[in-house]
Design brief:
Oligomer: heterodimer
Number of helices of chain A: 11
Number of helices of chain B: 8
CATH class of chain B: Alpha Beta
Distance between the termini of chain A: 20 Å
Largest sheet of chain B: 6 strands, mixed
Distance between the termini of chain B: 35 Å
CATH topology of chain B: Rossmann fold
Shape of chain B: globular
Order of helices and strands of chain B: EEEHEEEHHHEHEHEEHH
Order of helices and strands of chain A: HHHHHHHHHHH
Number of domains of chain A: 1
Number of domains of chain B: 1
Shape of chain A: globular
Structural class of chain B: alpha/beta
Structural class of chain A: mainly alpha
Radius of gyration of chain B: 18 Å
Strand content of chain A: under 5%
Chain lengths: 260, 235
C-alpha cells in the first residue's frame, strides 16, 4: 500500500491544485496575522474557514481525483495488487496531501508569528486536528459517492449537494426544529443533532475550546458542560473517528463488487 | 490452462455473458472474436478480476482466481485503450510498473524496438495515440509471464510497429506462452491465430481452428466466414 500511497501523493504534488490550496492557506495565514495582529480574532476567522472550506475542498478533490485517476486505477487493477490496497492507498494519499497543505500553509505563518511561544498553540493544534479530521471524513464521503456513481457530472453534483447539506442545510433544519419546539426541553436532542454532523461538531468543539460559548446562549451552557468535560471531548473524537471508519468500510464493501 | 465454467454477467438488464463455458489449453495464440458488444472485453476483464462475474468460476492452472490477486503476477495485460496518468513521463511510468511488479523485465529492448527513446522524458498526456499504444505494448511485453492477454493490440499502430508487434507475438508463442487476442483485424487472425473463439450472445458460438471455421461456414476467406457467423445475429 505504501507504494500506491507514494505514487498518489507524487501524482498530486505534480498537479497544480495542491499548491494552489497550500498557497491559499499560506496567504490567508499571513494576511490574518500580520494585518490583523490579534491572535484570537485570527484563530476565529481561520476556524470559520477551516470548518466550511476543508470539507468543500476535501469533497471536490476526492471526487475529482477519483474520476481523473480512472486510467491510473485501471492500470493498477491489472497488476498483482489487491483491490482494497489500491483504493486505500489513493484515499490516504489524497487525504494526507490535503492535510499537509493545510498544516504547512497555516503552520508557516503561525510559526513565523511566534506562535510556539504563545499560549495559543493548543487552540491552533485543535484547529489543525479538526482540519485533519474534516479532510479525512470528506474525502472518504466523496470517494463513496464517486464509487457509487459512474457518471462524472452526476457524481460531482451529488458531492456538492452532500457538502451543502452538512455545511448549510443541516443547520437550517436544526434551527427550524429549535424554533418549532422552543417550548420544550430539547437540549439533549440539540446535543445529539450537533454530534451527528461532523461540521457542526467541529465548529462547536473549537468554539468551546476558544471560550466563545457565550455566543451560544443557554444551549451553549449545556454544550459547554458536556464538551468541556473529558467525556464530552472523547465522545466527540470518537464520533469523528466513526465518521472516517464507516465511510471507509462502506467503500471497501462496495469495491469488492464493482466492475471496472 | 484456463477453465471458465458457466460464467454469467449482467450489467443492469443487459446480459453480457450468459453461462459461458470455455477451456483454453496451454500454449498458442487464441483469437477471441465476436461482433461489437458480444462480451469479449467483459470476458477478458473477468479473467483479470476487473469485472466481478455474477455466477460461475474461472480456474487458472488448477487454481480458482475469482477474488484473488496474486495470480496477476503471472499475467500480462494490454488494455484496449491506452489511457495513462497524464502527469507522468514514459520513463516514470515504466519505472512505476516495474516497481509494482517485483519481476525481471526487459523494457530497454522493447523501447529500442519501438523507437521510444526520444519520448522517454515526455509526459504521457502529450503523446499521440499510436505512441501511447507503443508504451502500452512495452508495459505488456516487458515481463516474462505465461499468459498474455491483448485487447485490440493494433489500435493506432503504424505498419512498421505492426510488423514488430506480430514478431513479438510470434516470439512469445515460440516460448510456449498462451496468448489471448481480441481484434477486428481479420488478417492478423488469419496469419497468427492457432484457434478462434467466437462469442455471440454471451456464449461461445464457435471454437476451433481457422480452417475448421472456413469449412464449417463454407467460405474461403476468414473475413467472409466471420461475417457469415455475425450475419446470423443480424438476421
Amino acid at each position: 500500500m505504501l507504494k500506491i500511497l507514494k505514487y498518489s501523493i507524487y501524482d498530486l504534488l505534480r498537479s497544480r491544485w495542491s499548491y494552489v490550496y497550500f498557497f491559499f492557506y499560506l496567504i490567508l495565514g499571513f494576511v490574518l496575522f500580520f494585518l490583523n495582529n490579534n491572535l484570537d480574532k485570527a484563530i476565529t476567522t481561520i476556524m470559520n474557514i477551516i470548518v466550511i472550506l476543508t470539507p468543500l475542498i476535501g469533497t471536490i478533490f476526492g471526487v475529482m481525483y477519483y474520476y481523473n485517476s480512472k486510467e491510473f486505477t485501471e492500470l493498477l487493477l491489472a497488476q498483482p495488487i489487491k483491490r482494497s490496497t489500491i483504493f486505500m492507498g489513493q484515499y490516504l494519499g489524497i487525504s494526507l496531501s490535503l492535510t499537509l497543505s493545510l498544516v504547512l500553509g497555516l503552520g508557516i505563518p503561525f510559526a513565523l508569528y511566534g506562535l510556539f511561544r504563545s499560549a495559543a498553540i493548543f487552540d491552533f493544534s485543535l484547529l489543525l486536528l479538526v482540519g485533519f479530521f474534516l479532510n479525512f471524513i470528506f474525502v472518504a464521503l466523496a470517494f463513496n459517492i464517486a464509487i457509487t456513481v459512474d457518471n462524472k457530472i452526476k457524481g460531482f453534483g451529488y458531492a456538492i449537494l452532500m457538502w451543502l447539506f452538512f455545511a448549510v442545510i443541516y443547520d437550517g433544519i436544526f434551527m427550524i426544529t429549535q424554533n418549532i419546539y422552543n417550548e420544550y426541553p430539547i437540549d439533549k436532542f440539540s446535543l445529539a443533532a450537533t454530534m451527528i454532523n461532523p461540521i457542526d461538531l467541529s465548529r462547536i468543539l473549537i468554539m468551546l475550546k476558544l471560550n466563545l460559548s457565550a455566543l451560544l446562549g443557554y444551549t451553549g451552557a449545556i454544550f459547554k458542560q458536556f464538551f468541556g468535560s473529558n467525556l464530552g471531548f472523547f465522545i466527540s473524537m470518537a464520533v469523528l473517528i466513526l465518521w472516517i471508519v464507516l465511510p471507509v468500510l462502506r467503500m471497501r464493501v462496495k469495491l469488492k463488487k464493482k466492475d471496472f | 490452462m484456463i477453465q471458465i465454467e458457466k460464467l454469467h454477467k449482467k450489467f443492469g438488464k443487459l446480459t453480457v455473458l450468459d453461462g459461458l463455458d470455455l477451456t483454453i489449453q496451454k500454449g498458442g495464440i487464441f483469437a477471441i472474436l465476436g461482433p461489437n458488444g458480444s462480451g469479449k472485453t467483459t470476458l477478458i476483464k473477468c479473467l483479470l478480476g476487473m469485472v466481478v462475474p455474477d455466477k460461475g468460476n474461472i480456474i487458472l492452472d488448477g487454481k480458482p482466481i475469482l477474488k484473488q490477486w496474486k495470480y496477476r503476477n503471472d499475467l500480462n495485460y494490454l488494455p484496449q485503450i491506452a489511457n495513462f496518468p497524464v502527469n507522468l513521463s514514459v520513463k516514470e511510468l515504466i519505472a512505476m510498473v516495474k516497481n509494482l511488479r517485483p519481476k525481471a523485465s526487459n523494457e530497454q529492448e522493447l523501447i529500442d524496438l519501438f523507437g521510444l527513446n526520444p519520448f522517454m522524458k515526455k509526459k504521457l498526456g502529450n503523446l499521440s495515440g499510436g505512441t501511447k499504444q507503443k508504451v502500452n505494448l512495452v508495459l505488456t511485453f516487458m515481463f516474462d509471464s505465461d499468459l498474455i492477454i491483448l485487447d485490440e493490440p493494433t489500435t493506432g499502430l503504424d505498419p512498421i510497429a505492426l510488423i514488430y508487434l506480430k514478431e513479438l507475438i510470434a516470439k512469445e508463442k515460440a516460448k510456449g506462452k498462451t496468448i489471448l487476442i481480441t481484434t477486428h483485424i481479420m488478417s492478423l487472425v488469419d496469419q497468427m491465430a492457432d484457434e478462434i473463439v467466437f462469442l455471440l450472445d454471451g456464449k461461445i458460438y464457435f471454437k476451433g481452428s481457422v480452417s475448421a471455421l472456413k469449412t464449417q461456414t463454407e467460405q474461403d476467406s476468414l473475413e467472409h466466414a466471420i461475417a457469415h457467423l455475425i450475419s446470423k445475429q443480424y438476421a
